[in-house]
Amino acid sequence: MGCCSYVVKRRNRYYFRMRLPTDLGLILRRTHLIASLGTSDAHNAKINASRLFFSLACFLETLRLRMTHELNTDRTDQSPAELLALGAFELGRQYQMGVEELRIEFNLKLKAMVTSVQAQMVPGDTAVWEMASAPQPAPMLTRQVDHPHYTQMTNETVSVEMPPSIISTHTVEEARPRNLIPSSPVWHTLRTAFMRDKPDLEKKTIWSYDQAFDIWIKLIGDKAIRDIRRGDVKVFADFLRDKENPRGGKLSHATIQRSVGHIKTFMSWAVAAGSVEDDGFEKVSIRSLTKEERMGDEDRRAFTQSEVSMLFHSRLFTEECSPSEEATRWFLAIAALTGARTEEIAMAPSQFVWVDDVLCMDLRKVGTKTPAAPRLIPLLGDLLKMGIVEWAAKQSARGFTLVQPDVKQKSAPAWSKFLNRYLDKTVTKDPTLALYSLRHSFRQMLRAGNIGDELCDKIFGHSSGKVGAGYGRDLSADEARLFLAGVKPHVSLQHLWQ
Question: Rounded to an integer, what distance in angstroms lies between the CA atom of residue 360 and that of residue 348?
């Protein structure tokens, strides 16, 4: 095998990589030797690798001879010390001490040998090379051994200068010391850099990440990124396991999984960036599913007919309202009669679109959750008779979006919290009934209208995954009329007609 087989490229730099023989690897506690070749040029890298290969071959042969003649640790025969160790634990302990000292000594000499060869290499990137070759303090190794095999080494103190830390190794029993990481900022100062590497995240997802990070700060504080361990992620998972849901009960399995997944994703990013050693963060587990969750019970259900009636007979729909309360009333009506998502309604424009003779709400720019989310939704007759066209004209004249309550835009999470509290007061405190339940109810309306699954998905903003769904994605006039003819609200809303 040619020496160039031992050359690997990492981030535009070349490294020497070679598997150590098994018998020597057990002594050195290494499986491979990886060393920088100090250049980004392929030709120079091959020359430097050849030099390092032949020097390493000589070094390994020397080590094998030392093992055979001094300790008889070639793994083929039992050494005298090993035979004595069978009957005398103390002699065995001293023998292992000798093996350990030999390992330390040869590891130091191995690094010194590599450093010597690198000093004669073809120059590469000077700035990087000088930084990597900065001197380090020399450790002092002291050994006192009273054993026949080491009579010439008794009470000997060896002073060895530690070579530069330019060799990275894959070890059998030891991981790379964490103090070799060059810098270690506080973990939450990396949040901005993490988000910059994920430019396609939706606002709702960013908000979810921020919620998880804010909780983690309270749990582990200003910890350096390199000091974070798997247990810190487990602390976060256990906190969510025991956390009370503001709407009653404990947090759902899906919520915990999503939040812990955010932390795992962040730590995977930090590992890839070289800021922390991988401590098996992905192995952290969350609580198991409850019986109800395993049986497939949803954490959100649809409104019953009586609950829909209670909603549309509540104060917002039966009493005079302020402008901001009027926006809230329209938000609920639109959610119930269009099935649009909370974030879509919050940002929906106040200008409607005609599809032939059918007036539609335009979500083509605000629908982003799925490929089918950008869509038109025909406005049911009840919405038109309730005066949604006049309301939209008023909002457009003010320069507002469809449900914007005042000059300041209200975010989707704020709408969700506010309206969930309203539903708790006026309908029920059942934790499975929330604002998003109106979307479930609208799906039931679509099924009851018997308009076909493909049209249901097109109006609802779902991607079916079928090949045919990719054809004719734009809503046609015939499809809009079929929707209006078949889909009806669960209850009569005549009391809300103008």
Answer: 12
Q: Alpha-carbon distance 251 to 339, whole Å?
A: 25
Give the integer Cα–Cα distance in Å for 418 and 327.
12
Length of the chain: 498
User: What angle in degrees, to the nearest 10, is found between the helix axes of 323-338 and 388-398?
Assistant: 130
Mean pLDDT of 171-193: 64
Specify the CATH number for the domain of residue 477. Answer: 1.10.443
Tell me the residue type at 297. D
Tell me the chain's radius of gyration from C-alpha atoms: 35
Asked if residue 482 and residue 385 are part of one domain, the reply reads yes
What pLDDT is stored for residue 372 in this prediction? 85
Tell me the pLDDT tens digit for each residue of 89-133: 666 667 777 777 887 888 888 888 888 877 777 665 433 333 333
Spatial separation of the C-alpha atoms in residues 16 and 45, rounded to whole Å: 8
**pTM of the shown model:** 0.49
How would you classify the pairing of strands 32-36 and 140-143? unpaired
The CB density around residue 260, as the number of other CB atoms within 10 Å, is 21
**Domain span at residue 27?**
3-174
Q: What is the dihedral of CA 18, 23, 25, 28, to 10 degrees?
A: -130
Tell whether 161 and 223 lie within a shared domain.
no
3-state secondary structure of 465: coil
Chain-centroid distance, C-alpha 313: 44
